[in-house]
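Researcher: Re-running this chain for the archive, since the previous output was lost when a drive failed. Same request as before.
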Amino acid sequence: MLLTALLFGGMTLFSFGFAAVLFNVFDAPVARKGIRGTFPFYYLWVIVAASLAGSATLFVNAVAGFLLIGIALSTAYARQVLMVQINAATDSGDKNSFKWLHSVSVAIQLLQIGVAGWAVVLLA
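Model: Regenerated C-alpha coordinates:
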Protein backbone atom coordinates (compact mmCIF):
# COMPACT_ATOMS: atom_id res chain seq x y z
CA MET A 1 0.00 0.00 0.00
CA LEU A 2 2.78 2.42 0.92
CA LEU A 3 4.66 1.86 -2.36
CA THR A 4 1.46 2.33 -4.33
CA ALA A 5 0.59 5.53 -2.49
CA LEU A 6 4.15 6.79 -3.00
CA LEU A 7 3.87 6.06 -6.72
CA PHE A 8 0.52 7.86 -6.98
CA GLY A 9 1.71 10.87 -4.99
CA GLY A 10 5.02 11.13 -6.83
CA MET A 11 3.39 10.95 -10.24
CA THR A 12 0.80 13.52 -9.26
CA LEU A 13 3.34 15.92 -7.79
CA PHE A 14 5.66 15.66 -10.79
CA SER A 15 2.85 16.10 -13.31
CA PHE A 16 0.98 18.95 -11.68
CA GLY A 17 3.63 20.61 -9.54
CA PHE A 18 7.16 20.23 -10.82
CA ALA A 19 6.65 21.35 -14.41
CA ALA A 20 4.46 24.28 -13.39
CA VAL A 21 7.04 25.44 -10.85
CA LEU A 22 9.88 25.20 -13.37
CA PHE A 23 7.99 27.34 -15.87
CA ASN A 24 7.09 29.88 -13.18
CA VAL A 25 10.61 30.15 -11.78
CA PHE A 26 12.74 29.95 -14.94
CA ASP A 27 12.60 31.37 -18.43
CA ALA A 28 10.99 28.99 -20.94
CA PRO A 29 14.24 27.75 -22.55
CA VAL A 30 15.78 26.93 -19.16
CA ALA A 31 12.57 25.31 -17.93
CA ARG A 32 12.31 23.18 -21.10
CA LYS A 33 15.92 22.05 -20.67
CA GLY A 34 15.22 21.17 -17.03
CA ILE A 35 12.11 19.19 -17.90
CA ARG A 36 13.84 17.37 -20.74
CA GLY A 37 16.74 16.46 -18.49
CA THR A 38 14.46 15.27 -15.72
CA PHE A 39 12.12 12.98 -17.65
CA PRO A 40 14.53 10.03 -18.10
CA PHE A 41 15.03 9.88 -14.31
CA TYR A 42 11.35 10.39 -13.57
CA TYR A 43 10.35 7.61 -15.96
CA LEU A 44 12.97 5.29 -14.46
CA TRP A 45 11.64 6.05 -10.97
CA VAL A 46 8.07 5.25 -12.08
CA ILE A 47 9.18 2.00 -13.73
CA VAL A 48 11.00 0.84 -10.59
CA ALA A 49 8.33 2.02 -8.13
CA ALA A 50 5.45 0.55 -10.15
CA SER A 51 7.32 -2.73 -10.66
CA LEU A 52 8.08 -3.09 -6.96
CA ALA A 53 4.57 -2.07 -5.92
CA GLY A 54 3.00 -4.35 -8.53
CA SER A 55 5.14 -7.33 -7.58
CA ALA A 56 4.39 -6.90 -3.89
CA THR A 57 0.70 -6.25 -4.50
CA LEU A 58 0.05 -9.23 -6.80
CA PHE A 59 -0.17 -11.50 -3.78
CA VAL A 60 -2.56 -9.22 -1.92
CA ASN A 61 -4.79 -7.99 -4.75
CA ALA A 62 -4.14 -9.39 -8.22
CA VAL A 63 -6.11 -6.66 -10.00
CA ALA A 64 -4.12 -3.87 -8.31
CA GLY A 65 -0.89 -5.77 -8.97
CA PHE A 66 -1.58 -6.10 -12.69
CA LEU A 67 -2.63 -2.45 -12.89
CA LEU A 68 0.66 -1.38 -11.34
CA ILE A 69 2.67 -3.66 -13.63
CA GLY A 70 0.75 -2.08 -16.53
CA ILE A 71 1.96 1.32 -15.34
CA ALA A 72 5.55 0.04 -15.33
CA LEU A 73 5.23 -1.38 -18.85
CA SER A 74 3.54 1.68 -20.32
CA THR A 75 6.16 3.90 -18.70
CA ALA A 76 8.91 1.78 -20.26
CA TYR A 77 7.26 2.49 -23.64
CA ALA A 78 7.00 6.19 -22.82
CA ARG A 79 10.66 6.34 -21.79
CA GLN A 80 12.22 4.23 -24.52
CA VAL A 81 10.03 5.12 -27.50
CA LEU A 82 7.76 8.09 -26.97
CA MET A 83 10.29 10.34 -25.21
CA VAL A 84 12.82 9.69 -28.00
CA GLN A 85 10.22 10.65 -30.63
CA ILE A 86 9.22 13.79 -28.70
CA ASN A 87 12.86 14.87 -28.39
CA ALA A 88 13.46 14.23 -32.09
CA ALA A 89 10.39 16.28 -33.04
CA THR A 90 11.57 19.10 -30.77
CA ASP A 91 15.11 19.02 -32.13
CA SER A 92 13.92 19.09 -35.74
CA GLY A 93 11.41 21.89 -35.09
CA ASP A 94 8.46 19.71 -36.10
CA LYS A 95 5.81 21.44 -34.02
CA ASN A 96 2.89 19.34 -35.31
CA SER A 97 4.57 16.06 -34.43
CA PHE A 98 5.63 17.46 -31.08
CA LYS A 99 2.07 18.55 -30.24
CA TRP A 100 0.65 15.15 -31.20
CA LEU A 101 3.32 13.12 -29.39
CA HIS A 102 3.18 15.35 -26.32
CA SER A 103 -0.62 14.94 -26.23
CA VAL A 104 -0.19 11.17 -26.32
CA SER A 105 2.36 11.41 -23.53
CA VAL A 106 0.06 13.54 -21.39
CA ALA A 107 -2.88 11.18 -22.00
CA ILE A 108 -0.78 8.17 -20.95
CA GLN A 109 0.42 10.01 -17.85
CA LEU A 110 -3.10 11.04 -16.81
CA LEU A 111 -4.36 7.50 -17.36
CA GLN A 112 -1.48 6.14 -15.29
CA ILE A 113 -2.25 8.53 -12.43
CA GLY A 114 -5.88 7.43 -12.52
CA VAL A 115 -4.85 3.76 -12.53
CA ALA A 116 -2.43 4.30 -9.64
CA GLY A 117 -5.22 6.04 -7.71
CA TRP A 118 -7.54 3.13 -8.45
CA ALA A 119 -4.89 0.72 -7.16
CA VAL A 120 -4.66 2.74 -3.93
CA VAL A 121 -8.42 2.45 -3.51
CA LEU A 122 -8.34 -1.30 -4.20
CA LEU A 123 -5.68 -1.72 -1.51
CA ALA A 124 -7.34 0.51 1.07
